[in-house]
Known about the structure:
Layout: H1 3-12, H2 17-33, H3 36-64, H4 70-80, H5 82-90, H6 96-102, H7 104-108, H8 114-146, H9 151-162, H10 166-189, H11 193-209, H12 215-228, H13 234-267
Amino acid sequence: MSKSDKNKESADQPKGVNDILDEQISTAVYEYKRSNKRLFVSALSAGLEIGFSIFLMGILFTLFQGSVSNEILHVLISIAYPIGFIFVIIGRSELFTEHTTLAILPVLNKTRSIKSLFTLWGIILFGNLIGGYIIGGILVYFAPEIGIISNEAFIHLAHKVLDLPLQMIFVSAIIAGWLMGLLSWLVASSQETISRMFMIILVTATIGIGGLHHSIVGSIEVFTGLLIDPTISIIDYVSFEVISVLGNALGGVFFVGVLKYGQRRQHA
């Protein structure tokens, strides 16, 4: 068998649990070693890039609202949801909901401290939010002016994630965090870029169609609504963001980070 055939056979074989965890831990340790400035810039980039999900969802709402049923409109908008995640994850920018799972692994492995974990999370979350505010402000400023996104689209997207009791947002955010943690795991298990893109589309479209609450995408949705709709207050935004961040973190850390790490111990 030639070397190329061996490489192809290796690429076709799925990675084992320990192989994926070792890769995840190695990646996480590398992130811990990066300077705070580089982490922030990468996180800022992710916040900007994830905004293209809002951009495309807003365009589709504006184009099809009133001409198709609400159910079909919801599916169309949800199809647009993954685009920002593809830009972020394939482009290797730092997204908070990926790091809720990734960054906990070296802590469980006792190579990093809880303090360093919260520092890493804080830098990435802050960068993501600032990037989201920038892209959200840009979209609200220029998109209605050139007629590609209506103000109604921004208001619809904001109320879609806001108009639930906080306890329901929390549960929804836990499930979204769980799915994002699984996505990090699935991307690491995939050998090729096309496979990774498929996983990103599959998982994030599930979040979109399910109406689940993602703290970074949701931040932009509510922030753009806040800039336009006087019925949305800063208290609404802060309440939503705190609850969704906590839910995403809990879902990613426990249901994926802790359980998958426990799976490694069982395989050891």
